[in-house]
Amino acid sequence: MYKVIVTDAISETGLHALLSNSNFEVDQATGLAPADLIEKIKDYDALIVRSQTQVTREVIQAADHLKVIARAGVGVDNIDIDAATEKGVIVINAPAGNTIAATEHTMAMMLSLARNIPQAYGSLTAGRWDRKLYKGVELYQKTLGVVGMGRIGTEVAKRAKGFEMNILGYDPFLTEDRAKKMGIIKASLDEIAAQADFITVHTPLTAETRGLIDADYLAKTKKGVRLINCARGGIIDEQALVDAVNSGHVAGAAIDVFEHEPPENTGLTQNPSIIVTPHLGASTAEAQEKVAQSVSEEIVGIFETGSVQHA
Ligand code: NAD
Ligand code: MLT
């Protein structure tokens, strides 16, 4: 019998492969304090998380039986990969299950930002009728810079083309040929700064991408640019963004992910020009079922046949 612990909210339907297999016992324990996870993890063979649980070196070192850490989602930046590798623990994720959800959330954020929808909703529900205050801008024929042309960046670019935006894509792996086939322009970060009306980031959070959009970069952007981050907190430097919005250089931002979650920077979360959502990019019924199903089936495969697909 293999013991699996699920420490973030995961779709129960998606866990079917594990729940219906008599070789596995599944315990769900969300909201554990770090010390409680360190204590509990000793008994388990597999751990399933989303982005909330911090799988630190201490957790991994305390895990005497652990063979698999599964991230029901894309980013594995909440897992100490070095510590897992040193202990021989396999880390898997579900790279494609929430691509559409995150893409559609990015489009929703871009449209909400362009048309001040959250602010106007707040105003009207507070009893005001502020039509002038919430005049927006169109996406049509605006330039969108997409930083990170992987799964989500690519899907965002496709949908933005439907709005007849001009798309500039930046990614170390984006070839001229692929850009041409997609009908977008391969650009450098500086070209995006100089030309884009909207900039959306879709890279992982790494040492290289932390602060990729910082005060120096923002100073190079067009006055009136709008930024979107539905990837990872920290890719856009939060304080630099707040300062650039407050100075009037950046017209607005739409942020789903934060350097600390829940966020600590009230300059960001209580700014009338910055719209925020609490890390909802992957939060659709469909995506949550797909990512849970993907990791569940892979865990069964690892323990029963030794096959690993998304390490
Ligand atoms: P992906 O791996 O398919 O794509 C990431 C792309 O970023 C790759 O093409 C890579 O080449 C590129 N990249 C890496 N470093 C770069 C750099 N320095 N400059 C430019 N490009 C760089 O990943 P994805 O599935 O598209 O996910 C993108 C991001 O969205 C990740 O950070 C992921 O964790 C996040 N995400 C967030 C949510 C959410 O709930 N908000 C949901 C899903 C994914
Ligand atoms: C991801 O990287 O997959 C997202 O952040 C979604 C999640 O938190 O589940």
UniProtKB/TrEMBL annotation:
Single GO biological process annotation from the record: L-serine biosynthetic process
EC class (word): oxidoreductase
Catalytic activity: (2R)-3-phosphoglycerate + NAD(+) = 3-phosphooxypyruvate + NADH + H(+); (R)-2-hydroxyglutarate + NAD(+) = 2-oxoglutarate + NADH + H(+)
Biological role stated in the UniProt entry: Catalyzes the reversible oxidation of 3-phospho-D-glycerate to 3-phosphonooxypyruvate, the first step of the phosphorylated L-serine biosynthesis pathway. Also catalyzes the reversible oxidation of 2-hydroxyglutarate to 2-oxoglutarate.
DNA-binding listed as a keyword: no
EC number(s) recorded for this UniProt protein: 1.1.1.95
Molecular function terms from GO: NAD binding; phosphoglycerate dehydrogenase activity
Pathway field: Amino-acid biosynthesis; L-serine biosynthesis; L-serine from 3-phospho-D-glycerate: step 1/3
The family this protein is said to belong to: Belongs to the D-isomer specific 2-hydroxyacid dehydrogenase family.
Keywords, comma-separated and alphabetical: Amino-acid biosynthesis, NAD, Oxidoreductase, Serine biosynthesis
Keyword Amino-acid biosynthesis included in the entry's annotation: yes
Complete-protein stretch covered: 1 to 311 of 534
Name of the protein this chain belongs to: D-3-phosphoglycerate dehydrogenase
Organism whose genome encodes this protein: Sporolactobacillus shoreae
